[in-house]
């Protein structure tokens, strides 16, 4: 398992747990071509300066048939439209790019992947945090016990978010097949199996 992370402290922690943690970004870290079974951008792609280039870098590192899982905030969701500059996932200046499902699909296809599945979901914190930002203009519970209590309340609000179809995240899985064939299989099972093999 290889991780790329700009934080030296996070790299040290990951290395202590046996991860090949490479300090830097996709723009300055070398990845071996065709060497990886899967790559995951879990709320990280929106932090990059050059989404197309970063996607192409990762696609080159995947073996044929390799999986690319991307989860990013959904810029097309109703929360973003309703809360505007108080939308929790706007997160400026840390989020440098915002993607809609259509935009992410186009970027992935330009990078040479076939989109196998696309779904939207909600995070436990998205809607409650957006309401908090709208009412108070800031995060009221940044750490400690108050953060844990607020997190619990966010989890308790999840049924409401699901009922209102909050859909503040996009999860997209792409498969790289150099011969152009689309693989038919249970994507989630394939990803979990790959991760399990790495962690054994």
CATH class equals Alpha Beta
Q: Could you state the CATH homologous superfamily?
A: Vaccinia Virus protein VP39
Strand arrangement across the biggest beta sheet: 3-4-6-5
How many distinct domains? 1
Outline type? globular
Mean pLDDT across every amino acid position: 80
From the helix content, strand content and strand pairing, which structural class follows? Answer: alpha/beta
CATH topology description: Rossmann fold
Number of helices: 8
Helix content: 25-40%
The value of Rg in angstroms is 18 Å
Element string (H = helix, E = strand): EHEEHEHHEHHHEH
Uncertain runs: 176-186
Distance between the ends: 11 Å
What would CATH call the architecture? 3-Layer(aba) Sandwich
- Main sheet characteristics: 4 strands, mixed
What does this structure look like?
By secondary structure, this protein is of the alpha/beta class. The protein has a single domain (about 30-200), classed as Rossmann fold, CATH 3.40.50.150. Helices cover about 40% and strands about 20% of the residues. It has 8 helices and 6 strands. The chain has helices spanning about 10-15, 50-60, 80-85, 100-110, 125-135, 145-155, 160-165, 185-200, and strands at about 1-5, 20-25, 35-40, 60-75, 115-120, 170-175. The strands form 2 sheets. Strands 3-4-6-5 form a 4-stranded mixed sheet, with helices on both faces. It starts with a strand and ends with a helix.
């Amino acid at each position: 398992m290889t991780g790329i992370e700009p934080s030296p402290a996070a790299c040290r922690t990951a290395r202590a747990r046996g991860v090949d943690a490479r300090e830097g970004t996709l723009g300055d870290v070398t990845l071996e071509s065709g060497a990886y079974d899967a790559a995951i951008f879990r709320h990280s792609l929106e932090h990059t300066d050059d989404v197309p280039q970063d996607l192409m870098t990762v696609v080159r590192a995947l073996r044929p048939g390799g999986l690319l899982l991307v989860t990013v905030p959904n810029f097309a969701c109703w929360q973003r439209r309703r809360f505007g500059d108080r939308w929790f996932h706007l997160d400026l200046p840390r989020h440098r790019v915002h993607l809609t499902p259509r935009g992410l699909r186009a970027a992935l296809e330009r990078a040479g992947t076939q989109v196998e599945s696309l779904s939207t979901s909600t995070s436990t914190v998205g809607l409650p945090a957006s309401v908090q930002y709208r009412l108070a203009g800031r995060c009221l519970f940044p750490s400690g016990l108050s953060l844990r209590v607020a997190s619990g309340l966010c989890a308790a609000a999840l049924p409401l978010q699901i009922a209102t179809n909050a859909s503040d995240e996009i999860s997209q899985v792409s498969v790289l097949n150099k011969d152009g064939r689309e693989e038919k299989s249970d994507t989630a099972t394939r990803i979990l199996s790959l991760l399990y093999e790495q962690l054994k």
